[in-house]
């Protein structure tokens, strides 16, 4: 692609790219067709370009004034700042207006999720976690109509079982209830993102995805863990009833390591890794620091 600009006009595509890179760390779906992702990308770029463009416009001399001060034979100095002949500040205003339209007309995140669930894209494989968050042993049976029995195990209290499942529909029998679980093969690959399914035996609980990187240290003690504000480390709260498809993403420059509920955390991480843990919490309850302190300590010691 060929860019045409004058003066500082090249900052238009540069700011859009930088804004998209920063915003992508907060979005799971970074496709150009995602109106929310594109809207927030263009909003921040548009605001920055508007402010800088107006400053450049104020500093620009009118061509007539420039010509009056030129010596015979002197070439006028370039004083316009535009991209494809459109001034930078107009790009900023236009991108800001477009971003507002995309953000408010793109539908809610819930509607986007529902539309995705209606698509039957069964392929590949995905990890399916069964977590027994009850005080008694629970039997879990998993099968499908084509291949028969996949799993028939008793899971002890506060323990998990996980297995890689091919894309398809599975029947899960647990606690006298039957649930159809749809496994959609992972659509993305990369160390900085993860796609898995979590099934809680007691659906009266939610899942908290918590960044526990600060807890993965050999020299940390219980008092130091309690001093950390874990409520600020909560990435999202998930209503896992009856099951939840996890799609989480970190910075493009870090590797994501995710631990199932009650799985002990490592004493240290490799360079560039970020650790996240799923913590169960009663549905409808407030996220309190004392609760998270106890939960994090339990998977550290």
Characterise this structure.
With about 300 residues, the protein is of the alpha+beta class. The protein has two domains: about 5-65 and about 75-115, no CATH class; about 140-300, no CATH class. It is about 30% helix and about 30% strand. The chain has seven helices and 15 strands. The protein has helices at about 10-25, 35-60, 65-70, 90-105, 110-120, 220-225, 290-300, and strands at about 5, 80-85, 85, 125-130, 140-145, 150-155, 160-165, 170-175, 175-185, 195-200, 205-210, 235-240, 245-250, 255-260, 275-280. The strands form four sheets. It has a four-stranded mixed β-sheet with strand order 7-4-10-13, with no helix packed on it. Strands 6-5-8-9 form a four-stranded antiparallel β-sheet, with no helix packed on it. The protein has a four-stranded mixed β-sheet with strand order 12-11-15-14, with helices on one face. Strand 2 (about 80-85) and strand 3 (about 85) form a beta hairpin. Helix 1 (about 10-25) runs antiparallel to helix 2 (about 35-60) and helix 2 (about 35-60) packs antiparallel against helix 4. It is elongated, with a radius of gyration of 26 Å. It starts with a strand and ends with a helix.
